[in-house]
Known about the structure:
binds magnesium ion, alpha/beta
Amino acid sequence: xxxxxxxxxxxxxxxxxxxxxxxxxxxxxxxxxxxxxxxxxxxxxxxxxxxxxxxxxxxxxxxxxxxxxxxxxxxxxxxxxxxxxxxxxxxxxxxxxxxxxxxxxxxxxxxxxxxxxxxxxxxxxxxxxxxxxxxxxxxxxxxxxxxxxxxxxxxxxxxxxxxxxxxxxxxxxxxxxxxxxxxxxxxxxxxxxxxxxxxxxxxxxxxxxxxxxxxxxxxxxxxxxxxxxxxxxxxxxxxxxxxxxxxxxx
Length: 250
Ligand SMILES: Nc1ncnc2c1ncn2[C@@H]1O[C@H](COP(=O)(O)OP(=O)(O)OP(=O)(O)O)[C@@H](O)[C@H]1O
Ligand SMILES: [Mg+2]
């Protein structure tokens, strides 16, 4: 078992504190949720964990090994793979080629962990076989999100970070994604940190949920605890209800 530890991480952009003294842990085999209003710092946390940005203070460790403020590539080779809120595929390459790019890197640097994994098995796992030879940019949105996950998994990560994987999916698609993500956890034995605004998706998928508001962690717990937490209801669910109400009244 490996533990990903985020300890007292802070990150600011000019005068904006995107993260303030945030700590959390995720173990391989766990699925952890990260929720909070727009601008709460969720994506910044994934950016810091994957070394897309250096942090101001604090640390990120894989077991004892420091992995913060290195580089996205080094972080990926250390076992952290991710998807992006704004999908970043190689648009002109086919679905298969998108996966092969990561898989070739894994064959070179993480071969010991491949454990029988192939590009074909990833295409099958994310149900992309029928579109394997199509350029990524021609795929429907939901398929592109699944391809991002397949490409991340081709790095044989120990931790998979998913930034809004269910965005733009309908209810049936996001329900299907819940069982896919669980299947991935069981097969790849990785830890998964997942951000989404779809609360039903997060509450059904995750064992533990962390709630961010204005860069601070305001709650942490099991789905049933989080749903009842007054701070969360106020900061997140209440906000959502007010937004829904406003939308309904216009
Ligand atoms: N590269 C950047 N440069 C400047 N400010 C940034 C940058 N990235 C994030 N921020 C700011 O940091 C804060 C947190 O942003 P972040 O994208 O992490 O929020 P989020 O919780 O992912 O929001 P959303 O739900 O809208 O995706 C915001 O105020 C944002 O404007
Ligand atoms: Mg975000």
